[in-house]
Amino acid sequence: MAFSEFHLSSFQCAGCHEYRNAHGVPILSTYSEWEQYRQRGGDKECQHCHMPQVLANIVDPKVKRVRGAFVNLHAMPGGHARDQLVRALEMRIMEAHRTPRGLRVKIRLRNVGAGHAVPSGSPMRKVILRVEVVTESGRRVQQERIYQRVVLDKRGAAIRRDSLLFTEARAIARDTRLAPAEERVEEFLLPISVDENLTLTAALIYLYSPHERPETETRIEFLSEKKELFSRWVR
Ligand code: HEC
Ligand code: HEC
Fold it and tell me: What's the pLDDT band for 234 if we cut at 50, 70, 90?
């Protein structure tokens, strides 16, 4: 038995979390995104965020009882874990004001807690920023921004299933994900110009749909902010 430095380094995860297919398309790029995170001042290895120390039995308690022992968590909480998602991004409604053309809204997002892009891993993973305004009389207007890598097949159509990705991907059409440490301001113009009290909500949703079937989908709303905007008229 010997101590293994390798098991403490991100390089241990690279073998599976970095992959280019036969056509040279980067399907998984979490490791190279992590290198970018390091260049931008990040100082943590994958294990620090995904395998934190937890209290556990290091020997079967029937054999020997060892109290207060720690082991590294092996559940690998990632995008399917709400507490991990909450740590990843920061969201703030910066501005919301009425204009003759509608409600102008500015939202700031920051990738503060992931050691790679958000989302990372399979390109079938998306994060959606949904902005919604509801009037007193019940009218509802919604707009979205989607953060995702869109991958194309040889006919130029977007691939929508994990099972086709590895063999069929030929090009990346666009990548709108939040890079490590990136800050982005999104602007919306919601076409509502009535002079009523309005409720504005901004929400972040994680969506992983590997097979294009709703029953196999993971959908987690993980952050939201609400703002009431009062009418100029006091009734
Ligand atoms: C032998 C291959 C292999 C190695 C090595 C490996 N992984 Fe994975 N990992 C996978 C596969 C396959 C998945 C599932 C596909 C996916 O979610 O992208 C996965 C998924 C994950 C997830 C996502 C879980 C979720 O919520 O979806 C995290 C986080 C993760 N791995 C972290 C790590 C870390 C950290 C290391 C290094 C200590 C590591 N992995 C090493 C194969 C591997
Ligand atoms: C500074 C903390 C941090 C570091 C370092 C880090 N991660 Fe993560 N990781 C997160 C957070 C937070 C999430 C959840 C947000 C997301 O899904 O992107 C996450 C999600 C993931 C996911 C799931 C992707 C998804 O969108 O569901 C995988 C896979 C993963 N990490 C692998 C890795 C690997 C491999 C490394 C090292 C090369 C690594 N992580 C380094 C914090 C970190």
Answer: low
